[in-house]
Amino acid sequence: MSAACLSLLMATITLNDGNTIPQLGLGVYLAGADGETYDAVSAALRDGYRHIDTAAIYRNEADVGRAVRDSGIPRSEIFVTTKFWANSGHGFEEVQKACRVSLSRLGLEYVDLYLVHSPGAADAHGRAETWRGMEKLKADGLARSIGVSNYGLLHLQALLQTAAVVPAVNQVELSPFRNVPDVAAFCKEHGIALEAYSPLTKGERIGDPRLARIAEKYKKTPAQILIRYCIENGWIVIPKSTRPARIHENGDVFDFRLSVDDVILMQSWEENLVTGWDPMIAP
User: Fold this and answer.
1) Stretch (H or E) spanning 149
2) What sign has the CA pseudo-torsion 104, 106, 111, 116?
3) Which residues are catalytic?
4) How far apart are CA 45 and CA 97, in angstroms?
């Protein structure tokens, strides 16, 4: 096994419930259920990845689970995340049913992290009922850790007023071009780990000349610099790719560090760039 693979295995973050999560994982958003997801996950696991992030709405949970089972790697060594599609309706019973459906598709007895995919259109009471259901899933062992995704500051503040269990993770879009400082500060105060999706900006800023200059300085690709930026900030990060060479490249980010000055410089690129949806602004 290469040094890069070993680094992937060793780089973890301890969540507020005591569970550990590999800091870098593979995202499979928009990966096809025609074998594309299975092949990508299989390639990632062979390359040392031990963290796979899917969701019910991605419609590829079955391929993720099959790749995990076929890998020959002990289940306890692979961290699997999936998500409850809250836009179809919040509620205690709804999330109980949805988690069990996801587990059936995955062919797994539990997930390591189960997230509420977004605040959805519910009010604070509806979200609180969903979270009560999430807490029950954790208590029953169906989800080892529970968290949220795309929750803005107001959503988090309201949730913590009634929650018995503080979310372990808030997964949001993060990059040097979107740092969500208010949410980041709140999460840090309450021990909620931030997880970055779309850290490569879906390619929208990959050609930024400022990024190119830093990449040249470190003899790395722009994508590797963007991933390393997330790591330097202490975020979990899940770049998406279905190409084995790119999956390997994205994982090869543990043999260098960005200087403090370069991290600060990259933070100054803030423009609240949103490359997809933005449920964080939902009322």
Assistant:
1) strand 143-149
2) negative
3) 58
4) 29
Tokens representing 93 are 């019973």
- Of how many residues is the chain composed? 283
Q: Measure the N-to-C terminal CA separation of the chain; round to a whole number of Å.
A: 48
Q: Name the token pair of 140.
A: 């029953």
Identify the CA nearest to 134 among candidates 170, 105, 94, 87. Answer: 94
CA distance 283 to 280: 8
pTM beyond 0.85, yes or no: yes
- Record the tokens describing residue 161, joined without a space: 């007023």
Cα separation values, 59 from 139, 140, 154, Å: 26, 25, 30
| 146 within 8 A of 171, measured Cβ to Cβ | no
At residue 5 the predicted structure's pLDDT band, cuts being 50, 70 and 90, is low
Task: Answer for the pair 32, 22: CB distance below 8 angstroms, yes or no.
Answer: no
Tell me the pairing of strands 12-14 and 20-22: antiparallel
Tokens representing residue 224 in the block:
């590797």
- Distance between CA 235 and CA 163 in Å, rounded? 23
Q: Which residues contact 54 (CB under 8 A, 6 or more apart)?
A: 28, 37, 60, 61, 64, 80, 81, 82, 83, 106
Q: What is the pLDDT of residues 65-83, one digit of tens each?
A: 999 999 999 999 999 999 9
